[in-house]
């Protein structure tokens, strides 16, 4: 686990750019612009797992974005959370249709991070996806978007390390692995739009599993290509709160595999 002296050194000793290695900066201007991207794109892996919601990504997963993501996730470069959050916020805004702010009249917006394995979080000393989600929410609020971060998903069983697994193996590995934590359904009451967030999409298996669990918790039918259907009338019965007419589940990531950008359906 990171010591207090490591956290302090991140603040006062900038070191080298996480993207290109330039001295005396944690992230140079050029790499910051590259990580932010020129505009989020609709991405879809080949093959796409069943139930994968529409996903938007800020940039392809290649250097310097790859190097910056790894520095934040694996080396605990916590100062990178804000620029990465800004990149994620851009993808969320497009996925949720917030436009210039406010939110398009579809109800409150919630960012739901895809959870890391508890053992990975302990080994890293932090939860990178949750940290970036909070940074993205702060960026969206500055733009006038009403947004909450709801960390309501958790792993219900242990999964294998996804590294080295193919698309079918990853899907089998994570199917049935997630659940909504106790009390999570109550937190979701009144939410009109949900954007699942993660730092990276490769095969889309984790996002598809997270979307399945969210739809089950919300009582929605499986969505068609154009979006989620009406609620089935049973969700939130115990909450005593009026249900929205519909709820949408989308996804946003900072980076995705370069070939997934070939299917651009913006």
UniProtKB/TrEMBL annotation:
<feature type="region of interest" description="Disordered">
    <location>
        <begin position="222"/>
        <end position="244"/>
    </location>
</feature>
<dbReference type="InterPro" id="IPR000836">
    <property type="entry name" value="PRTase_dom"/>
</dbReference>
<dbReference type="InterPro" id="IPR051910">
    <property type="entry name" value="ComF/GntX_DNA_util-trans"/>
</dbReference>
<protein>
    <submittedName>
        <fullName>ComF family protein</fullName>
    </submittedName>
</protein>
<comment type="similarity">
    <text>Belongs to the ComF/GntX family.</text>
</comment>
<dbReference type="InterPro" id="IPR029057">
    <property type="entry name" value="PRTase-like"/>
</dbReference>
């Amino acid at each position: 686990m990171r010591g207090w002296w490591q956290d302090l050194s991140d603040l006062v000793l900038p070191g080298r750019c996480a993207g290109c290695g330039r001295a005396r900066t944690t992230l140079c201007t050029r790499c910051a612009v590259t990580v932010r991207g020129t505009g989020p794109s609709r991405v879809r892996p080949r093959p796409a797992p069943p139930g994968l919601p529409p996903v938007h990504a800020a940039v392809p997963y290649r250097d310097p974005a790859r190097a910056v993501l790894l520095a934040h996730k694996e080396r605990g470069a916590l100062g990178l959370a804000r620029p990465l959050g800004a990149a994620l916020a851009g993808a969320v805004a497009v996925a949720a249709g917030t436009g210039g702010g406010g939110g398009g009249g579809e109800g409150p917006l919630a960012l739901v991070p895809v959870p890391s394995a508890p053992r990975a979080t302990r080994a890293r000393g932090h939860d990178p996806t949750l940290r970036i989600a909070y940074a993205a929410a702060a960026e969206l609020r500055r733009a006038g978007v009403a947004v909450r971060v709801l960390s309501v998903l958790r792993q219900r069983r242990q999964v294998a390390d996804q590294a080295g697994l193919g698309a079918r193996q990853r899907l089998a590995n994570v199917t049935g692995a997630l659940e909504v934590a106790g009390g999570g359904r109550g937190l979701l009451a009144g939410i009109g739009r949900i954007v699942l967030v993660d730092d990276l999409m490769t095969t889309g298996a984790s996002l598809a599993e997270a979307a399945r669990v969210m739809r089950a918790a919300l009582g929605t039918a499986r969505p068609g290509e154009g979006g989620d259907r009406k609620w089935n009338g049973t969700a939130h019965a115990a909450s005593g709160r009026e249900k929205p007419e519909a709820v949408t589940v989308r996804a946003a990531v900072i980076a995705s595999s370069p070939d997934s950008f070939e299917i651009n359906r913006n």
